[in-house]
């Protein structure tokens, strides 16, 4: 019998982390592994942000705790960027600073869910949502989509999944893992549908600034006034400012959710590292040009990856429009023989690819999407090309 609790014991370790650690282990053996697994920018944090953190380290006032909900100046800055970017009328008192967007997701579910509450999670989904919901006592209800609809759900899909126990909808655009971005009218329709059903919406806007081509970012609370105050926005500096390691995110929501999340945080993590909060303040109030520069690099790599993957026989791909992931359908390669081997799942195929051609991809099973794989294009252009060429040679 397991000695750890059933609650935590029932959660599998993160599949994205698993593939990254295997790739790292092979690299440590001196092998030339190209990793498409990482969900983080390969750029260093912009210099002015690092400088602000260095200065903050030297000031003794930053060696102390901050209020549990975060530094007042940072909460102000988050309210201002949320107003500007998401079009909602919020103040510093609507903001809780968290240890990354991940803790904002966790706090939101913990603050809103009671045992048995169902949460609609469009799939393919980011691996964390179902587990964070289950840890809070809720029940994740995947709402499947596939490449034929560009991985976007419709109100009709959601209507088929809703029950009288549904409390909330998770909405993320741009999406991890699919790179899908919903057009404004679809965001509005889904918001209206959720409002009619009396649901809460948690909208994850962490990839807000990473949209490409003709795609535009639309915040559901900003275009769906019918939701009134039944929404929580999750966001953070990790992806846009190349700050994954600093661990600063936030949630923005109504006073009762903010109070509950703050209380929870006061008894769990107290507050985000003071110096990291100062760095995030510099990010949000400083020049936007570094974000634009990184976005342009991701866009270039996105086009290269899309065009190269599209050319591989048996790979079907929707052009990603946001975030930094491609999500090809590789199911045609399951069951066929590759170098004398056959594969039942993309998990098996990914392990073979890593061993055979030293390329790390993440199997779609982890995101509720068997038959697919996620490839991050947040890596150097030359490595990206070399890595996809290896896949081309193996799979053609
Ligand atoms: C969709 C989505 N939301 C939230 C996060 C959380 O990011 P962080 O905790 O690094 O701020 C991630 C990170 O992978 C993500 O992909």
Give the helices and strands, then pairings.
Elements: H1 6-9, H2 15-28, E1 34-35, H3 47-57, H4 72-86, E2 95-98, H5 100-112, E3 118-123, H6 128-135, E4 139-144, H7 155-161, E5 166-172, H8 184-196, E6 200-204, H9 220-223, E7 231-236, E8 249-252, H10 255-268, H11 274-285, H12 289-310, E9 325-326, H13 346-357, E10 359-360, E11 362-363, E12 373-376, H14 381-395
Parallel strand pairs: 1-10, 3-4, 3-5, 5-6, 6-7
Antiparallel strand pairs: 2-8, 7-8, 9-12, 11-12
Helix pairs in contact: 3-11, 4-11, 5-6, 5-10, 12-14
Protein model, in words:
- It is a single chain.
- By secondary structure, the protein is α/β, with parallel strands linked by helices.
- It has two domains: 6-44 and 290-395, Aspartate Aminotransferase, domain 1 (Alpha-Beta Complex), CATH 3.90.1150; 47-285, Aspartate Aminotransferase, domain 2, CATH 3.40.640.10.
- The chain contains 14 helices and twelve strands.
- Strands 2-8-7-6-5-3-4 form a seven-stranded mixed beta sheet, sandwiched between helices. A three-stranded antiparallel beta sheet has the order 9-12-11.
- It is globular.
- Bound molecules: pyridoxal-5'-phosphate (PLP).
- Residues 39, 100-102, 126, 172, 176, 204, 206, 236, 238, 244, 249 line the site of pyridoxal-5'-phosphate.
